[in-house]
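hey so i finaly got around to running the thing on Fungal-type protein kinase domain-containing protein from Sparassis crispa. pasting the sequence first so u can double check i didnt mess up the copy paste, my clipboard has been acting weird all day
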Amino acid sequence: MPMKQRVDDGRTVWERTWTVYPSKMIPVLPKRLRHFEDGFELVLLVYHALCAHQEYYKAGVLHGNVSEENVIIFETPFSERKGVLVDLDQANTFRRPERPDPDLKARNV
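ok and heres what it spat out for the 3d tokens, dont ask me to read them lol
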């Protein structure tokens, strides 16, 4: 069961989420995108966020507010850092039009 705790780092109030793994509970404190280590990591973090945006799109969701503030750095339990796209408050759902059957010929009506 996820639990949440508010954390004040001096400038921003963060919401810390406790992630439950099998037989462990690990605190997760996300970092802002500006805390990247080098240029390569920044590109990789943005790439992860773009992949998440693509998956949202495939599921019929448009994020609506992709910005620096909505991409965070998530550190996995194995010290791997990933870019995560958060804050779906302004997201919109849509239904993509189905592709027409290529075997059907267009006709004027």
